[in-house]
Amino acid sequence: MNDQSARGMLLADQSFQAFRDLLFRGEVRAGQLVSISELMEKTGFPLAPVREAVKHAESTGLVRILPKRGVLIIEPTPDTVRSCFHLRCMLDQEGARILAARLAEAPMQALREEHAAVRDQALEGITSELQQWAMAVDWKLHRALAGSLDNPLAAQVYASNHDRITVLQQSRRLLPERIIPAMDEHLRIIDAVLAGREEDAMRAVRAHLAGTLRWWGIGLSEA
Asked: Does the keyword Transmembrane apply (predicted)?
């Protein structure tokens, strides 16, 4: 690869990261149709790297390129939401089973303490800072479950799905009343793992999926 090609790849990577940051901050939202020129303006990158960034985003399911219309950000339809969370659940179940079989006490105990702290604070009152903390703690458990798979291919799938879910979540306001139930669902997963109960851990992951979809107003297997 010559220097010019290398610079082009670097710009494309930087452009994709800038685009991804826009999505994560909600500056470009799920279901929104945007033009390439808008993305150039928002990211500050020229045409070629922005086009490459959009192609990359399409390959990971973040967007669809609509010829002569623009770039459609992943839409929060019931099927899309269900598919993304179901995929996470499938990987999380196996991760929970592995951790329970290993009796992975040290990382799980630390996570348990953090979840309990979020829950205790939520009982006293919910602030925007607590909501952000709860979201971060929520993802800590999911990353721990996925990481236990020790599978680079699964890690790639999980990372792309994390990005899709993060963008989808930007389409809904954080609900304060969801924090305590979500922490309880996570604590049941953690407690089953700590007790070495593999089936209970997997069952708790599935129950968390059902709770998450209810928050979205979606059933597990709607037609």
From this structure: no
Query: What contacts 125, CB < 8 A, 6 or more positions away?
Result: none
194 and 174 in a common domain = yes
pLDDT in tens, 87-122: 999 999 999 999 999 986 778 999 999 999 999 999
- 136 in a structural domain: yes
CATH number of the domain bearing residue 178 = 1.20.120.530
223, part of any domain: no
- 25-42 pLDDT, tens digit per residue, is 999 999 999 999 999 999
